[in-house]
């Protein structure tokens, strides 16, 4: 791989110099201005820092007003987001919506509940140790997806709740640099089928138009039946495929890089998190009024990118077993986040579910 003004960074070229310049937005420097950090004289920790003055952690975080949208970064010109870090109370992870807009577009290219974007869709912390997403104790969300833009970028967070959310910490790291013509724009979309209608499939993506590549899947899977749930196939319909797909997997656990029901040792699910795929979260009923097994799974198509030139549709079957050995079409709760790059403009996203439909109950 070659260097292009600081956007392509890996161990083989870390020593190569670049004309790119690095900036960052946060509560301490909301505009991302050069030399603009740690200048606050009033903030959420003014009382705690009253003896220290500016530069001593006066405004490390913000509060999110009820039913409001807050801008986390607004950047002019060309460059790329290189890293996101966010942390906030886990009870809010499905009630906050992360959106990203490139080059002044009116509709977002990214629209995902905060926890699901970072592979923590169930409102309970789980460790994720992968290449593009890292989640560290206790709820430190990190994204290393490269997100180039040519005419500007805007990142927002919407609070769907009727109450204020205190203590929202964030940092958006980016570079200003020229962006080569052959780089696509980052997209991420959330969809939930709760439940999957009997006899139907869960659609992760549909109506994607243009040239691009599919680079990742996160799936928060909630079981509404007892027994094994992962026989369903992932299918990728590429460039005019209609009834039958070009890419068809052999089972849900196979798609996420596991096998034989993720069972290890016997009678137990084994969690795992690796650079490109994993099942980092298994939630099993353990107390009064608890029910429904819940799982969090991811797969990143980084070494095995799925490329398309015209259109893309992605589905997964919810499939288990009947007691007599026949397949059972399940009516489970599937919430997916799809990640891909493509040319703009992108097709409009489906309307995001309401806060009640997003809620984990």
Characterise the protein shown here.
It comes from Kribbella aluminosa. This is DUF2961 domain-containing protein. InterPro entries: DUF2961 (IPR021345). It holds the Pfam family DUF2961. The protein folds into two domains: 1-183, Protein of unknown function DUF2961 (Jelly Rolls, Sandwich), CATH 2.60.120; 185-342, Protein of unknown function DUF2961 (Jelly Rolls). With 361 residues, the chain is mainly beta. 3% of the residues lie in helices and 41% in strands. The longest helix is centred in the N-terminal third of the chain and has 4 residues, at 114-117. The strands form four sheets. Strands 3, 5, 6, 11, 13, 15, 18, 19, 20, 21 and 25 form an eleven-stranded mixed β-sheet that branches. Strands 1, 2, 4, 7, 8, 9, 10 and 12 form an eight-stranded antiparallel β-sheet that branches. Strands 14-22-16-17 form a four-stranded antiparallel β-sheet, with no helix packed on it. The model has no long low-confidence stretch (mean pLDDT 94).
Keywords:
single chain; 361 residues; mainly beta; Jelly Rolls; 2 domains; 8-stranded antiparallel beta sheet; 3 helices
Distance between the termini: 46 Å
Shape: globular
Number of strands: 25
Task: Please identify which CATH superfamily of the largest domain we are dealing with.
Answer: Protein of unknown function DUF2961
CATH top-level class of the largest domain: Mainly Beta
Percent of residues in β-strands: 35-45%
Order of helices and strands: EEEEEEHEEEEEEEEEEEHEEEEEEEEH
> Given the structure, what is the number of helices?
3
Q: How many structural units, i.e. domains?
A: 2
Largest sheet, in brief, is:
11 strands, mixed
Q: Which fold does the CATH topology of the largest domain refer to?
A: Jelly Rolls
CA gyration radius, whole angstroms? 21 Å
Q: What's the mean pLDDT score?
A: 94
> Approximately how much helix is present in the residues?
under 10%
Corresponding CATH architecture of the largest domain: Sandwich
Unreliably modeled segments: none
Q: Which class best fits the helix and strand makeup?
A: mainly beta
Protein name: DUF2961 domain-containing protein
Pfam family, one: DUF2961
């Amino acid at each position: 791989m070659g260097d292009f003004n600081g956007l392509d960074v890996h161990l083989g070229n870390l020593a190569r110099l670049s004309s790119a310049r690095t900036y960052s937005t946060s509560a301490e420097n909301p505009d991302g201005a050069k030399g603009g950090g740690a200048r606050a004289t009033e903030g959420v920790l003014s009382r705690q820092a009253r003896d220290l003055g500016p530069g001593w952690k006066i405004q490390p975080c913000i509060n999110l007003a009820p039913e409001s949208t807050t801008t986390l970064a607004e950047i002019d010109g060309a460059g790329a987001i290189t890293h996101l870090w966010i942390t906030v109370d886990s009870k809010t992870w499905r009630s906050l919506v992360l959106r990203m807009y490139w080059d002044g577009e009116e509709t977002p290219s990214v629209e995902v509940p905060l926890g699901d974007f970072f592979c923590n869709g169930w409102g309970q912390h789980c460790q994720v140790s992968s290449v593009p997403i890292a989640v560290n104790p206790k709820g430190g969300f990190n994204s290393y997806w490269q997100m180039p833009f040519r005419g500007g970028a805007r990142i927002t967070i919407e609070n769907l709740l009727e109450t204020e959310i205190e203590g929202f910490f964030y940092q958006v790291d980016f570079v200003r640099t020229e962006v080569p013509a052959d780089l696509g724009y980052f997209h991420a979309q959330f969809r939930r089928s709760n439940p999957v209608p009997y006899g139907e499939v869960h659609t992760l993506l549909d109506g994607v138009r243009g040239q691009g590549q599919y680079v990742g899947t996160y799936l928060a899977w909630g079981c509404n039946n007892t027994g094994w749930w992962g026989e369903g196939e992932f299918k990728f319909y590429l460039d005019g495929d209609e009834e039958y797909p070009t890419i068809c997997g052999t089972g849900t656990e196979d798609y996420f890089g596991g096998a034989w029901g993720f069972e290890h040792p016997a009678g137990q699910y084994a969690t795992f998190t690796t650079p490109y795929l994993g099942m980092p979260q298994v939630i099993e009923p353990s107390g009064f009024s608890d029910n429904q097994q819940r799982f969090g799974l991811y797969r990143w198509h980084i070494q095995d990118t799925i490329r398309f030139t015209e259109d893309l549709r992605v589905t997964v079957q919810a499939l288990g077993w009947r007691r007599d050995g026949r397949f059972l079409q399940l009516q489970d709760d599937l919430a997916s986040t799809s990640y891909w790059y493509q040319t703009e403009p992108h097709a409009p996203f489906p309307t995001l579910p309401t806060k009640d439909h997003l809620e984990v109950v």
